[in-house]
Amino acid sequence: MAGDRGVVAGELTVDGRTRTFTLRLPQGTAAAIPLVLALHGNHPDATGRIMREWTTFDEQADVWGFAVAYPDGCGG
User: What's the rounded Cα separation, in Å, for the pair 62 and 25?
Assistant: First the structure.
């Protein structure tokens, strides 16, 4: 996918449940920045990666200087 610089894949465990996510940082930002969570509907194929493809949040993050987190769903 174009614009993959600044993309981090990770996971977080809360109450014993592991959740995966993709985090996209805006280009050229080194200071503290806001974080936008891009949540998607309850569809088994809707992942954080697909939300990156379906939206313009990566481009908006570069323009406005915020980070975007695209969490994956949990069980559809």
Answer: 8
Mean pLDDT by 10 residues, the chain (76 residues): 71 88 78 85 76 88 90 74
Alpha helices in 1-76 (DSSP H): 48-54, 57-64
Q: Which amino acid is at 76?
A: G
H/E stretch holding 55 reads none
Is the separation of the CB atoms in 26 and 32 below 8 Å?
no
CB–CB of 29/39 below 8 Å?
no
Strand partners, 22: 9, 70
